[in-house]
Q: What sequence folds into this?
């Protein structure tokens, strides 16, 4: 893995993770969706996109998106996509410390195994 | 209509995996057509952006990823981020399989082992409660 690939991989993971945590904050503020009719969903999305958390999320996800585009222009999709799975380890920590989720003893091994899988993919 | 929490979580999980996998595959095809990114001047940047946004694969990728974002948002309104995010890692199994069998990309044995372990990890997460912060 070249330095350029490692740098763009780090930007993609951190920006996507920060963006997704911000999306989670916006959706938790709205509350559980129980009506799945298109009109009801559109109303929910309209409310969500007015949230400050969503503005932050869009900014971070845009950075992650363009970083991923650049990566995919020179690296194989079968390497790039599994390698960005490291976002789950960072995401687990973000969920615990920023979102107050209670990660059960059964959930952590799953996240750790995903991380081991990613290490294997990158080592290959 | 009252929908069981686990059932609706799994339905949106499948949609998330489907749209994120297809979105990334479409983007990959588009960027491979455009070639390696080299920006040395403003004209290079304009030319690159024109190339990106006039490519059909890129637009299909953007559409799929927007649908992914919509499903992701809906699921996060009730489910934990630490559940939905790792559970959606199934996409990281689907994409290399498609890359290998449909796009002809070479996947080394160590990548296959990593993909298998990611699958086991996703399986473990799937058996935990979808929400730990939900108010009844």
A:
């Amino acid at each position: 893995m070249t330095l350029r690939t490692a740098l763009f991989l780090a930007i993609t993971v951190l920006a996507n993770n920060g963006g997704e945590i911000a999306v989670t904050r916006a959706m938790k503020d709205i509350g559980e969706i129980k009506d799945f009719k298109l009109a009801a969903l559109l109303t929910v999305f309209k409310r969500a996109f007015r949230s400050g958390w969503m503005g932050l999320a869009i900014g971070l996800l845009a950075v992650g998106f363009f970083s991923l585009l650049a990566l995919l222009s020179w690296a194989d999709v079968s390497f790039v996509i599994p390698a960005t799975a490291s976002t789950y380890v960072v995401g687990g920590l973000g969920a615990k410390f920023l979102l107050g989720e209670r990660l059960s003893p059964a959930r952590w091994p799953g996240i750790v195994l995903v991380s081991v899988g990613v290490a294997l993919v990158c080592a290959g | 209509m009252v929908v069981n929490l686990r059932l609706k979580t799994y339905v949106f999980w499948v949609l998330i995996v489907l749209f994120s996998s297809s979105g990334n595959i479409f983007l990959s095809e588009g960027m491979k057509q455009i070639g390696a990114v080299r920006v040395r001047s403003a004209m290079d940047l304009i030319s690159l952006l024109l190339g990106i946004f006039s490519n059909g694969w890129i637009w299909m990728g953007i559409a799929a990823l927007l649908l992914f974002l919509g499903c992701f948002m809906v699921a996060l309104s009730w489910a934990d981020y630490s559940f939905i995010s790792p559970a959606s890692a199934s996409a990281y199994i689907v994409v290399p399989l498609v890359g290998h069998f449909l796009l002809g990309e070479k996947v080394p044995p160590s990548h296959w082992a990593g993909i298998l372990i990611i699958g086991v990890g996703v399986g473990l997460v799937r058996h935990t409660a979808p929400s730990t912060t939900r108010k009844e």
